[in-house]
Design goal:
Layout lengths: L4 H17 L5 H8 L4 H13 L3 E2 L9 E2 L7 E10 L4 E2 L1 E9 L9 E7 L13 E6 L8 E6 L2 E10 L2 E5 L8 E3 L5 E11 L4
Parallel strand pairs: 3-6
Antiparallel strand pairs: 1-2, 3-5, 4-9, 6-7, 7-12, 8-9, 8-12, 9-10, 10-11
Helix pairs in contact: 2-3
């Protein structure tokens, strides 16, 4: 079953937290991270993720979240190359494929890219992750896009400003990229899912 963008971000946060700490975040920690006003909101998200098969929980334990491996009916899509979560890097094309859960796909043509860099860590996108991208050449403000800028690929949050386009990182240590008039700019697609490999 498909995840909403907010459900995907919450699942990605749980994955990242488990990778960093070795255990799951508590409901209070999830609420604090996403600035939810009540634990009821967190519980609603967790119930939805559990119902869709992404999480399992043991009742009455604060750190009982367990990520589930979802393989049935996986869909094979192209692994198109690498994309920078940092300064744009030269697009590296690959002739590989990757199997993904159909719940991560959003219709249309989808492909995967391996992320390099950590400019999107506050959106739960880390170095080495695979982002699932729905191919399209436009985006709405606030969507995470994969874009080509002067022949180099990057993943950023898209914003159309009065004075042009801005590609915004999700890392307070990094600056937005302002797309100047005349620069070669093209949106390749929007990020609709994330796969993280654990060693």
């Amino acid at each position: 079953m498909s995840l909403t963008p907010k459900q995907q971000r919450l699942l990605s946060f749980i994955q990242s937290y488990r990778e960093d700490k070795g255990y799951a975040p508590s409901q209070a920690e999830i609420a604090r991270h996403f600035r939810f006003r009540s634990l009821g909101t967190v519980q609603n998200y967790l119930k939805a993720l559990e119902g869709k098969g992404y999480l399992a929980r043991r009742k009455n334990l604060s750190r009982s979240l367990q990520l589930m491996e979802i393989h049935p009916n996986s869909v094979r899509i192209p692994l198109a190359g690498r994309v920078a979560a940092g300064a744009p890097i030269e697009a590296i094309e690959q002739q590989e494929t990757v199997d993904v859960p159909p719940a991560l796909l959003r219709g249309g043509t989808n492909f995967a890219l391996e992320v390099k860099g950590e400019s999107m860590i506050d959106e739960g996108i880390r170095d080495g992750d695979l982002v699932i991208v729905r191919k399209q050449n436009n985006a709405e403000n606030g969507q995470i896009v994969v874009a080509m800028l002067d022949g180099e690929a990057t993943v950023k949050t898209f914003h159309r400003r009065r004075d042009g386009i801005e590609l915004v990182p999700a890392n307070i240590t990094m600056q937005p990229i302002h797309v100047e008039s005349g620069q070669g700019f093209q949106i390749l697609g929007i990020v609709v899912g994330l796969i993280r490999k654990y060693s």
